# Entry
Amino acid sequence: MTTASASTPTRTRDEIIALDKRLIWRPYTRMDTYIRDTQPVVARAASGIYIDDMDGTRYIDGNGSWWTNIVGHNHPHLMAALVESSRRLTHCTFAGITHEGAVALAEKLLPLLGPSFARLFFSDNGSTAVEVAVRMAYQYWRNVGRPQKCRFVTFEGAFHGETLGCASVSGVPVFHAALGDLVFDAVRLPSPARCAEAEHPDDALAETFRAAEQLLQERADEIAAVIIEPLIQGAAGMLMYPPHYLKRLAALCRQQDVLLIVDEVFTGYGRTGAFLAQHQAEINADITCLAKGFSGGVLPMAATAVSQRVFDAFLGSAEKTLWYGHSFTGNPLGCAVSLATLEVIQDQDLVAKSHAAGQRLQQRLDVLAKRFSFVRAPRRYGLVGAFTLSFGDDARSNDYLDDAGWRFYAAAKQHGALLRPLGNVVYFVLPLTITPAEVDALGDIVERALATAFPQAI
Ligand SMILES: Cc1ncc(COP(=O)(O)O)c(C=O)c1O
# Structure
């Protein structure tokens, strides 16, 4: 009998792919065409910005493994923390038991989030971090005696995760269209991030804000919370909007006594150039969701941070308690690696240091837009960059080929980078540790891949 383990592979690459295609149901994947056509990467190892295939090919992980990689794959400090914790304590329930890793993490993180955050609630991924936030906001108003404030306001194009609560407050139709009435009804505002595409972006943004203002002025009595992705609507296509919109929205929520949930699952931990994207708008939300980079992208670990006001509303009786949790809440390995992530970010001043690589990314985006007429709307915050592939007169349309993003993906893979697109949007989510030289290496690959994928359009 052969015993299989990930560290000592006993199968060939082809055998692994065959088994994968026979036994596994993949995320966000059309399975019939995957099984028929796709040759997946078979990861053997990862370090820094790279993922190594079993066949010896090294790829730049240009999307940061679904936006999780924040300090480089297999960072030695994170690995050491993981090994050390695994020798002592891998898991215990977080009900009735606590441990040093959890309190050390909370003690280090809360001040970095900002003065209004008083408590952390741990869970295990971005969706649960948001699900907790939605439940907290809903129950908050019941607990303070205003149960009629029970509706949620979200934005067109928002993405907050995959549980039914998250899907209800999301607005990217492709992901949740199949759910029909299974999700609850949220109130949807026009997206501030879409305004960049308008002929007069500033006017469009002002108009969009007026819609928010009108809604809250008229209906604050029935609204529990507004939930928003700060500065970037990620899944909608890395659509970006200016901090002042968020700042005004926060003031509006405060004025109308509506809770503000800022979902930093993607943007947190320095992605956009500050530790939290909301810091760029000089605000602190009532509730903030953290995941992905929270554990350095190493383990499923997340947190929902709340203000004292929110926490206090859950005190005083059994009925007011948040009867919610998960088996792996506060997992010791997750806490250890999350604390190590913060240590690396803080001790090495990574957020500030990452600005040089961010600027190089901007330069490369500008060059691409100059060289290729079909590279439109180059945009960036911190180490998140994107452009839209568009072959018509209208920068929003994609009349050349609907599968342009995937054509690009195939060419980029051939040249050595993994850059899964969002429709016709090509984007980059890079770790804070990336160097300007590595950004250049990626930029060179992207240039070659665009020329390979669209020769007739050059
Ligand atoms: C803003 C935002 N919130 C929540 C989620 C859900 O996170 P997870 O995939 O870890 O459940 C995502 C995922 O991309 C996200 O971008």
About this structure: Residues 396-401 have pLDDT under 50 and may be disordered. DSSP finds 16 helices and 16 strands in the chain. The longest helix spans residues 350-371.
